What does this fold into?
Amino acid sequence: MKKGEPVDRALRRLKKKVDREGTLKEVRNHRHFEKPSEKRRRRMKVAKFNAMLAARYADV
It folds into this structure.
């Protein structure tokens, strides 16, 4: 915390930093075992979505 900074602002800053780093997402992913095939399927789904977005906004 910075000197004289309200607690809610410091908490908001911390939440943004944790969100950007992906810490909570990683913890949630490790709550249960994920089979390699499930992991591959999830990654392929994300890659497909990102490719679709890239294709959609390539002209812009």
Q: What stands out?
A: The chain has one domain: 7-56. Residues 7-56 form one domain.
